[in-house]
Structure prediction request, 755 residues.
Amino acid sequence: MTPNSLAVTITGIGSVSPYGPLTGLIPQSPLEPGIITAWTTAELRRAFLVQPFRPASVVPGLKTRRLDRLSAWALVASSLAIQDAGIDLNQVDRSRVAVVFATAFGCVELTEAFYLSAAANSWNGTDPSTFPETLPSAPASHVSMFHGLRGPNVTVSNKYFAGETALIQAASLLRNGQADIAIVLAGDALARTLYSWYEVAGLLSPACYNSEPMSEAGGFIPSEGVAAFVMELSDRGAIRSDARSYARIRSGRWATASQPAEIIGPMLDGSVPSLIVCSGNGAPCATSPTTELARAISGDGAGIILPQPFAIGLAGTGALFHLILALGSRPNNGQALLLATAAASGFAALLLELP
Amino acid sequence: MTDIHKTIVVTGVGVVSPYGIGLDCLQAGLLSGKCCLAPTKDVYPGFEGTTAQVRALAADDDRSRYSRTDLLAIMAAQDAIANSGCDSSAFRESGIVMANTVGGLTGIDTGIAKDPAAWYRRSGGLLRGASYPFAHVADAVGDRLGVRGPRCAISVACASGAMAIALAANMLLDGAAPIILAGGSDPLCAFTLSGFNSLRALDPNPCSPFDQNRNGLNLGEGSAVLVLETLAGAISRNASVMAVLRGWAMTNDAFHPTAPQKQGVGLADCIKLSMEMAAVRGDDIGYVNAHGTGTPLNDIAEANAYEAAFRGRKNPIPVSSTKSYFGHCLGAAGALEAAITIMAIRSGTLLPTLRLSDPIESPGVDWLRGEVKRQPLPLAMSVSSGFGGSNTVLIFGSAR
Prediction:
């Protein structure tokens, strides 16, 4: 089965990450994990952490006091992406703007707070203002409310490919005529319960426990942040003449199939991408199944960008960051493939055209 | 002329509801007028209220890799496949789009907040933690059924189940998979009952949607899964078509985290968009299965939306809320109500809202109450809304 061409363009990028709140691409600079202080740890624990900042200092007028950090970051990242795209929302039919948000764990910080209030006051004494903010869809709802966006508002997830899924679903809304513009967001925030799960499950890199340099093997370093893209239809005259194009998404597939090469092959239509951006989970590794598949697809013909430790640490929601980091890391043009695999859970692949 | 590659059809419906397992069981229960809402005390210590529970599924097993949300979804998906008349091998390349709001919260207690590491080290703790993400439900269904197409989970509060169906239809139009199992699942759990209780949204007695004296909602639990494919696909594998998904639309109120916009503007827009997609007029819709939670704010906004969207119709639009039978099943509600809408079309039956004695004044709406109405029903609509302003509308048509 050949999927229809998605034909959408990424015209704006914003993000909140350990690099801080940023408009556009992330400058290339090494990133070291920070020491966790948000909750008490018996010994040193590290992760890629978003440093506290005042959202209203980045987006004037933004009120985030009772929100989960994930919602606050989604508001900031979406605002920066819209600004980067040069879109004046007052000149846009906001009923034609969709929001698609991907998260693996949702508003885990306030979910934890809700459990704490139940533990302290019983289930009959929980805080009514916290409950709605625990919903996984709360960040997307706040983005719609803040910007007045009345198109489809979707929160999606997928264990390994949540970011890719959001990109594909957003493209689908655009090409099926259900929106003209989509704000696509993906990310997660770290909380004590999440970090502890990784730790007890034995998934953490030794670099989480001491200040030694990161190694390729032996687990990953959890991270947090939200990336946002503005996506617009490439054809139908919807792209504004002055719009920037970071990349054009031609097609996308994800499946649990065990033979991804058989599905990705027809997507490429005989051509070899000049760049393969490897996304993925687990430790950052030059010999992971994703990079091996990338080599099998490209032969010697493509540059391969290995999974980036910070983006890997976002579990399934790192795809947007992988792409942002790749676009910022080297000048390129032609076809690129954003590729992720996850053992028995299959693969996700997006074919892009770089300007 | 019908484009069989662009026409989305329903070729199976699976249901787990407080009435039991299967669409026939749901239909028999609803048509008998039986209300599954009952006094409940056992969901958490100190809770006293009214809920509807699925008795066909035992309580959680602490050491299971599957949460109650997962198990309800798996049962509904298995029932959908059985209902489709095909064996599971036909579904090998299928996609899965499953909605929920609760994820694995049913298996997590307050101990996790005090000392998460100790809690995970308890027997089964890591597994229960692993089932927390709402995406786990899609994997649970896919792994259990051996389905290997694209998987995706949706969570948009109470519109989740309907939106899963809408997005699955988009995916079929995109050629992402030949068949998609789409629906929603949500169980009763302390977390959500406590949350709605804290918001004072719960009616302590069985709810009365659209009544002037309505006093809130009741929570229920369940799951429904539709087998969706293109008409071309259904013809090629000689599948029996139960209904046609004629139109679907999604909008957002962009108004408030929990309250709907009082005039129902976003919902009215959603209804109009769905009719536009289906290429039908307001007069063509024979029945609306409403969101109808029974909360003061929802029901008035919804009534206003119907007034606006069906303005100009010759006769008032027939509307009922089947949440009066087994409560609000949150992320499963939109999928269960889609199943009920399909049932209504196939059986030509319009269900009344229970306990509706003094309806909201709304001249453009025929609030169904009293006896079940029997009449041919070529087109019907299912309406869902949720916290955060999400709206989704589905229009189903007869297979004939």
The CA atoms of residues 188 and 277 of chain B lie 35 Å apart.
